[in-house]
């Protein structure tokens, strides 16, 4: 069973994405979804020698909800800054975020989250992979940005990728 | 009628955010800040169109359409990656003033010849030793 489905979540994801792509549930599309979901994880397994195991499903759901909410808020905050704040008042800042996360997958998720949420873009990773460089559009208090990234996102990801 | 108003509302919201994203490109002062407007404001802009589209097909055409969910998924996956590329390209062009330094090493953009995964392997002794990073003369 493990040999046939080395990555059950990926199998499920691929099958669902295929069904969404064809946009209808027929016998043919179900068979095709099953084939893709079986073949792709088997073929790509060698590229993921130490992939993280994700078991904390409630925390993943919680993280997704927090991030989606923050994306909506981020849009309004950035829109207000773009429309109503004179460029002279803009306090841009670079923030170096020391990472407690070590897995590349976890760092990727954190960096993507930072880019999608309020006024921050992740710009670079240090060569040793232990610090993330973040650019803030308007941050009068860079310490607060650092604190919110660490408590709001990184703490949850640490639990998810534990 | 209620659905018409709701769909129209989402379309207007989407249009407003699409406009804000584009306006930000013109108005903000330098490349790094310009990066912020399109990566965020557009997410809700496109999202609004997609929600309106799903509502339209569900209420007017009588069939559920799920392509919009996929568009959202791919958009959320690709927007951070392209933003990251643009940010790195911008760092390459001109190392900004006041850039903080990481504790032990330098940022990956300024460390040619290093690779995080390769370094980890080198520490555990499973990979050939790395050539030392080149001087930062750009």
Structure write-up:
- The complex is a heterodimer of chains A (162) and B (138).
- Chain A has 162 residues and is mainly alpha-helical.
- In chain A, 57% of the residues lie in helices and 11% in strands.
- Chain A folds into two domains: 8-47, no CATH class; 57-160, Alpha-Beta Plaits (2-Layer Sandwich).
- In chain A, α4 (104-116) crosses α5 (142-160).
- The longest helix of chain A is centred in the middle third of the chain and has 28 residues, at 57-84.
- Chain A starts with 7 loop residues before the first helix and ends with a helix.
- Helices cover 65% and strands 0% of the residues of chain B.
- Chain B starts with a helix and ends in a 14-residue tail after the last helix.
- In chain B, α3 packs antiparallel against α4 (67-93).
- Chain B has a domain at 2-68.
- In chain B, 26% of the residues are buried.
- Chains A and B meet through α1, α3, β1, α4 and β2 of A and α1, α3, α4 and α5 of B.
Computed Rg of chain A: 20 Å
Strand order of the largest sheet of chain A: 1-3-2
**Known CATH architecture of the largest domain in chain A:** 2-Layer Sandwich
Average pLDDT metric of chain A: 84
Query: Approximately what portion of the residues of chain A adopt beta-strand conformation?
Result: 5-15%
Q: What is the top-level CATH class of the largest domain in chain A? A: Alpha Beta
From the N-terminal CA to the C-terminal CA of chain B, the straight-line distance is 61 Å
